[in-house]
Structures are given as structure tokens and as C-alpha cells.
Design goal:
Elements lengths: L1 E2 L2 H8 E2 L2 E3 L2 H10 L5 H18 L13 H15 L2 H9 L7 E2 L2 E7 L5 H9 L9 E8 L2 H13 L7 E5 L5 H8 L5 E7 L7 H10 L4 E12 L2 H16 L3 E4 L18 E3 L1 E2 L4 E2 L2 E2 L8 E9 L6 H7 L4 E9 L2 E6 L2 E6 L13 E4 L5 E5 L2
Parallel strand pairs: 3-12, 5-6, 5-8, 6-7, 8-9
Antiparallel strand pairs: 1-4, 2-3, 9-15, 10-15, 11-15, 13-14, 16-17, 16-19, 17-18, 19-20
Length: 375
Amino acid sequence: MALITPSTIEKSCKRNGLFYVPDRVKTSIEDCLVNDDENAITGEYLRLLEDFRKYRTSIQPAHIEYRSPLTLDAYTVYYLSRYMFIPFVALRDLAHHPYFQNVPRSFNVLDLGSGTGAVVLGLLSLFSNTPLSQIATKITTLDCCAEALGRQKDLIEKAGFNSKQVHHYEQDLCDTDSCIKLAKKDGPYYLIFIANCLTELEHEVSKNLIQRLPEILADNGAIIIAEAQRNYIKKLIKTLAETAEECGLHVYYPCSSTGCPSDYGIYCWVWRYHEYDFPHIKVNNQPLQEEPRDKLILSWLILTQQDISIYDTFAKKHPGLSWGSISQCTGTDRSICYGNQSLPFKMDYDVSPRYTRGSIVGLSNRYEVKEYYEM
């Protein structure tokens, strides 16, 4: 077994306090671009950005077409370069619990809806760093878009990673039976990632998928769902948390127990933002004229086979406190999800200078902040 801790992940993935894209990945992005017109790529990014914004408050699946070379270029430059931080955050979150600090020396990973390979590149980067390079991973990717998978293969090769570590399959996730049958070939999986994928699927398809994942998840494994923060996903996260419990899985984060506060209605109100250092990517040796100013904002759901929670460690360290994730932010007021309750509290700046949504708080029986952990 190999030992990892949250600080191990942070040291491997952050520079000057921010997640950053390794130079080899930045260079591979530049080398993979088909279009050498920076204005065209930036214009396509702005079009995608507008499309994503239109879907933000929608409660319907997003329909985005990624197949054209120009769209793949824009997505690779502006979105892959931030979504590759998803495995960094996920493994750091898991490493808060002693159960996930002892990592197998070798394990399988499944990336569903892998696209251009943000999660894959993040994993390959993470496990090429000392001291994590002692861990051997085999990654299986499934996606319905052959063009996106082709771009992913190109990125992996140009970054100098071992392409034999990754098996790529073109597969529509809407066909759940075929998806699970294909994934079983390389399973069981220690980690299953579903990132920025469910936002484009009908809720019923996502539910069916979650119900079948225990068949291919290792007994000591985890499922990481990280999706764009929009109303459609906030509703889905709550639905999937309930579905997971019904099929024998357990919510590791963000819920502290089954059920959501009744006053939250149909949505899960826990999401997080992460600041990152956007790489200075060049197109045909010309710097980008437009760089994203928004943070990486995602709704998370981490599920496990074992009945464990991220709060176990904090509760053991500081018994007697009520632990939960910040779910509501209004003025100077905050609240945490605690079981099926919403517990309000006032921010205590002597404990922490800031209180961000999704971070973990320990409250006294008077609802005073005693502990705060930035997530």
C-alpha cells in the first residue's frame, strides 16, 4: 500500500497556493491544436461560454456539439485546462479519511464520458509526480464522441505519458447495459469518475447508470461525480444521493446522512469553487487575447462502497460538534447541511478569514463555529 494525505496531493498539484497545469500538458495542448487562428479559437470559446450560460438555470439536459475541430480546440484550451483539476480535488477529499490514505500500489480507474481527457490527463500528471509515481494506474475511458477520444489520445502522446496505461472505448452511456458490459472488461475499479457528463444526460439515464455502477466498483472503491453547477445538476445530485443509498452505496461527501433539509426543496445547495492558475497557452506562438476570469465551479457527489464519510475524521478529532458542508450563503449568514436539517451560523473570523460554500464546518450546540476546513 502507498500512503497519501491531503497535503501530499496539495504539494503535488499546487503552485503558489493555486492548482496549476504542468508544463508538459500545456505544451501538449498547444501542439494538438488544429486551428492556428487565435481569434477563431477565442470566438468559438465565447460561443461555447454563451451556450453554457443559457443552460445554467435550465432544468433540461444540455445539448452541446463538440465534434468539429474548432470546437475541440476551444474546449481543449479553455475547459480541459481547468477540468483536469477534478482528480486532484477528489483524491485530496478522499485522503481526509484514513480508509483512503492507504492506496493500493496498483489500481484501475474508469472515466465515464471522458471526452478530450481532462480527468485522464489530471490522473496521469498526478501519478507521474514523486512521491505518487510509485502508484501504478490503468485507466479505462468511455465516450460516445470518437473525435473527442481522438483528441484525448493525441494529448496523452504529445504530453509524453504512457499511452498503454489508457484504454479508450467509443460507447454511448445512454445504453447502460452495453456500457457496464464493456467496462467490466477492465474492472473492478478503485475509482470511477463521472465529470461534466451527466449534465448532458436525461435524469433517468443517470439514475440507471448509478444503480449499475456497484457491479464494477471495487469493494474499497469510490465514485466521483463532478458536474457544472446548474439547476439541472443541483436537482440531479439530490436524486442520485437518494438513488445511491437505495442500491447499497454510501454518500461520502457532501451529505452527512441520508436526506436533505426540507426547506432546500428539490435542489442540492452544496457546491464549490476552486481558484486555479490558467496556463499561458499560445496559439501559433501568439498569446490568447481572452483568458477565463471565472473560477472552477462544480457540484460534487462522492459515493463509496464502505459506510464511511469525510466527516468521520473531523468528528473523531473534535467530538461533540455538529459537522456539515456550507450550503447557503446570504450576507453574513451561512448554514450547513446536517442530516436532514439546515443549521444556520454566523461567521467567526477569528476561526477563519473566509467561509466558502462546500467547505466543512464544526458547530457547537449553540451553533458557534469551532472548526473550519477549506475544501
